[in-house]
């Protein structure tokens, strides 16, 4: 009986150590997780941009992206993406900016492939969408967009209105007004 208690206690300790390490080293979600972007698609034919832009929305969740336009027109649901470059740099205004270079692709059963390549700088997107069938280009889109909700607003610090007064030598200054 005593041996069974020792063995069960060892298994309990082992399970708690394994649980601790899995929670301690839990990986961080990708930087696009749970973000939504409003984008404008411009279809290009023979290098000439189309006349009318198409409004769309890109959603990112758990390593996959979803486009309303691609779902409605071509039947693509969640498309797996890969972040090829993730870097932070300082721009001309001494602000740290995060740059992501992302690539996504998926193929339908009828051999239609969509390839999405874009760059994300903080809340802005800029990229291309190519749709091919049997390795022949069918549609090509350029897109630009901004995160839904827009650019985060900066907190403004109120400054006191300071009044400067010139005092002539030999005169008494007025007390400050409150």
Characterization of the model:
- The chain has 178 residues and is an alpha+beta fold.
- The protein has a domain of 112 residues: Lipocalin (Beta Barrel).
- It has an eight-stranded antiparallel beta barrel with strand order 1-3-4-5-6-7-8-9.
- The termini are far apart.
Give a brief rundown of this model.
The chain is an alpha+beta fold.
Sequence-ordered SSE layout with sheet pairings:
Elements: H1 2-24, E1 36-45, E2 48-49, E3 54-61, E4 64-67, H2 68-74, E5 79-90, E6 96-107, E7 112-121, E8 124-133, E9 136-147
Antiparallel strand pairs: 1-2, 1-3, 1-9, 3-4, 4-5, 5-6, 6-7, 7-8, 8-9
SSE ordering: HEEEEHEEEEE
Total helical elements = 2
**Architecture per CATH nomenclature, i.e. the level-2 architecture of the domain at 36-147:** Beta Barrel
**Gross morphology:** flat
Query: Which strand order do you get reading across the main beta sheet?
Result: 1-3-4-5-6-7-8-9
**Name of the level-1 CATH class of the domain at 36-147:** Mainly Beta
Q: What integer value in Å does the Rg equal?
A: 28 Å
| Number of E-state strands | 9
| Strand-residue proportion | 35-45%
Q: For the residues shown, what is the average pLDDT? A: 83
Question: Helix amount, in percent?
Answer: 10-25%
CATH topology (level 3) name of the domain at 36-147: Lipocalin
Spatial gap, N to C terminus: 83 Å
Short descriptors:
178 residues, alpha+beta, Lipocalin, 8-stranded antiparallel barrel, 17% helix, 45% strand
